[in-house]
Amino acid sequence: MDFSDWRAQPTGRSRLGKAVLVLLALVGVWAAIKHFGGAAPGYDWDFGVLWKYRSLLVSGLLYTLLFTVICVLLGLLVGLVTGLGRLSSNPLITAPLRAYIEVFRCTPVLVQLVWFYYALPVLTGIEMSAMTAATVCLALYGGAFYSEIVRGGIIAIESGQSEAAMALGMTRLQALRRIILPQAFKKMVPPLMNQSIMQLKNTSLLSVLAVPDLLYQGQLIAHDTYRPLEVYTFIAVAYFLVLLPVTMWAKRMEYGVVRKEA
């Protein structure tokens, strides 16, 4: 088998093939639901009941998207500052930053959400709304991963370029801003996109704090209609339709970076 052209960008035919494959998969899932509704014997699927709650579902989806944008932007800011700090040679700076990163990377985000909302006010005396606690927690959680991406992207640039820039009279900060970061950013884009996609999926955990995202609104509708299968199927399809174009765009950017480096 020849793997020599694995870096090549997908052709128009392959993209069309993937689109057909996704369409067939959706049709297959729908057919399976219709045919094997037997997972709950005698269950009569009725998605029409969701129409009555369309405004609630749309507001939940918009809330999810807005919350994702806020958390991604704050996470990127935290990740940039933390990632640059981790490049310092001073252990008084790097040690606490590494501790922060490992704490957030090595504990479940669901536990972090609950801890921020319920335990942190007890320890500090600072009361936070569910929205504030969720924003701070997800921004710090994403920042821990973004920081390692930033650090890895900068380290991947050859040290000779930084030395050459300083030989031309640039300060360390100027070399970082004008020479290193523009190149490193190209390498960071694919993993940053992938982590941002994970942030969108993590917002589904906000319902534990009663933040009115798409899943929380879905839970209210399921309790009201006793139609959880239709509700959660709709939520899954909504997430899929939002994330599929983003993942395809991220993959396209990744191919672009690989081609430029080849």
Automatic annotation (TrEMBL):
Single GO MF descriptor: transmembrane transporter activity
Domain ABC transmembrane type-1: 61-250
TM regions (residue ranges): 20-40, 60-87, 231-250
UniProt keywords, alphabetically: Amino-acid transport, Cell membrane, Membrane, Transmembrane, Transmembrane helix, Transport
Subcellular location: Cell inner membrane; Cell membrane
Keyword match Secreted: no
Mode of membrane association: Multi-pass membrane protein
A Pfam family hit: BPD_transp_1
Gene Ontology annotations of biological process type: amino acid transport
GO cellular component annotations of the record: ATP-binding cassette (ABC) transporter complex
Main location: membrane
Gene3D superfamilies the UniProt entry points to: MetI-like
Family the entry assigns: Belongs to the binding-protein-dependent transport system permease family. HisMQ subfamily.
Job description of the protein: Part of the binding-protein-dependent transport system for glutamine; probably responsible for the translocation of the substrate across the membrane.
Subunit (UniProt): The complex is composed of two ATP-binding proteins (GltL), two transmembrane proteins (GltJ and GltK) and a solute-binding protein (GltI).
PANTHER family, per database record: GLUTAMINE TRANSPORT SYSTEM PERMEASE PROTEIN GLNP, MEMBRANE COMPONENT OF AMINO ACID ABC TRANSPORTER
Designated name of the protein: Glutamate/aspartate import permease protein GltK
Species for this entry: Pigmentiphaga aceris
Taxonomic placement: Bacteria, Pseudomonadati, Pseudomonadota, Betaproteobacteria, Burkholderiales
